[in-house]
Amino acid sequence: MSTILVPTDFSKNATAALHYAIMLCKQMESDLIVFHCSHISAYALSAATTEEQMNLLLKEDEEHKMEKLQEQVDKAYKHHEMKVPESTRLVVSYNAMFIEKTLEIAKESKVTLIVMGTHGASGITKFFFGSNTSVMISKSDIPVMAIPESQQYEGIDDIVFASDLQSFSFELTQLMPFAQATKSTINVLYMDYHMDPDGTKIKAAQEIIDKMPYKKIKLQVQPATLETSLVSQVKKYLSTHKLQCLVMFTRERTLWDRLFLKGSKTEDMSEALNTPLLSFRKG
């Protein structure tokens, strides 16, 4: 993971993500890009009667936002008693399409991870159903890490990767660069509904793990029951384990689709997910 990008709109949750990303870059020895997608309302632009006036308006807005971005970054590094590294880039670009422009910047800069803020537990419904972060997760080929507003960086050395073991080898390979960069143990969490009586899927997953050159991988098989919501069972597991990062893969009808779309209580989802969430989109 050589370059991390943080989009910011200067809100509290974006600032929390920036603080988290700064420390994550330090741990992973990565470069940082901080990006602000500027947008001027149509009402403000209507004041410009010529193309020259419009260009001047956009230039002034960009300069103002760059000053504000520099101030935010300087303040964040100062908080951590760090100097802003020379490799840190600040980018401001006017565009009404935030998601598309962010991904364009990320691809041009060969970004390997996008870090974004969420509103934390209280905003979990918005997070999964319509927020910029959820849309970014659905559209981005680049891994996205969502940071709750209340999250304080404590380092990462222990990852919980919840998997239904479908396409397990592919998923594990995708996760490996992040695990290696953070030197983390990967705890593969499989909720067992006893639909594989011979344990074929579990045996196959263990064989894949045994063949991996990275040895800090553990398969955790947890008995599951249809009588209790999956989110409650996952939450119970998480409550008894040190958790610094939760990993998911987005694809049609995965464990996570069932977890979030099956009508579980919002408060259950909030408690289970009040932690950094690293998402990969399965191709």
Overview in brief:
The chain is of the alpha/beta class.
- The helix-strand sequence is EHEHHEHEHHEEHEHEHEHHE
Gap between N and C termini, in Å?
19 Å
Query: In the CATH scheme, what's the topology name of the largest domain?
Result: Rossmann fold
Report the β-strand fraction as a percent range: 15-25%
Structural class: alpha/beta
| Proper CATH architecture of the largest domain | 3-Layer(aba) Sandwich
What attributes does this structure have?
283 residues; alpha/beta; Rossmann fold; 2 domains; 22% strand; elongated
Question: How would you describe the overall organization of this protein?
Answer:
- By secondary structure, the chain is an alpha/beta fold.
- It folds into two domains: 146 residues, 3-Layer(aba) Sandwich (Rossmann fold); 120 residues, HUPs (Rossmann fold).
- Helices cover 44% and strands 22% of the residues.
- It has a ten-stranded mixed β-sheet, sandwiched between helices.
- Helix 1 links the parallel strand 1 and strand 2.
- Helix 1 packs across helix 3 and helix 9 runs parallel beside helix 11.
- The longest helix is centred in the first third of the chain and has 29 residues.
- The chain is elongated and about 75 Å long.
- About 8% of the residues have low confidence.
